[in-house]
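Agenda item 2: iron/sulfur cluster complex prediction
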Amino acid sequence: MLSLDKLYPQLSYAEKNGLFEKLNSIYGSLPETTCDRCGTCCTVPPPAYIVEYLNMFRYLKKNLHERIPGLLERAVRFYFLELADISLKCPLLGEDNLCLVYPVRPLSCRGYGLVRRDPNTGRRNEMEELAARYKEKYGIILPGEVVGFNLPECGRVRVVEDKKASGEMLEVAISYVAQLESQLFPVELVDGEYTFVPYVTHLALTVLPEGARLRRHKVIKEYLETGSSAMLENFAEKARSFIL
Ligand code: SF4
Ligand code: SF4
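Presented output:
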């Protein structure tokens, strides 16, 4: 994850080496789509590479400057509470159910619903394992509706231009983005998917102090037991005044 002091050098390396132009051309290889905009798929924001996050970060600074304090606060709240409250959605989803960073949304958001596949493949097992770990290690029972949440397979995505989409096309696009990522990080990290987490996690970990991640379970416990968390309020307030 990138703290702010490491983020800017990576950003300027990516700019100087044309990584964002290459990334946008990979995005452009997929067909443009439209859908019913119900926002359901943004309940579980999918992972993104850091090169994609840097692209989104640049977009935020340029186009959504006034909204940044609010978005940082929401990102921090989501980071701490996504395992406790299923009503939370990706903080980058606007009030009108439209993605605030649509032109720079990651490949995994672009691929959702484009190709028919079970979006929960692997997720159910991962969540059950995570819930068992939280119970054993911290004595926390994660809510059943979070652990058992199933993202519906969406059949309402429509291609708006004369391009065909296929699973193979998506796989190729993912491998190209992974190659760009390997220009920023050692290939073992990229292959191990250590740099592949949702935008909201990237953003929260850029603004949170070191060690906040270690307190995540304490916030969850406090929140599940009392319905609020003083520690979380403290982190959220600091995030609002964080200067990017
Ligand atoms: S892709 Fe499907 S689930 Fe996601 S917002 Fe559009 S209609 Fe809703
Ligand atoms: S980045 Fe945009 S499309 Fe992706 S989960 Fe968030 S709001 Fe939804």
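Discussion summary: Residues 131 and 142 are 6 Å apart (CA to CA).
Owner for follow-up: CH.
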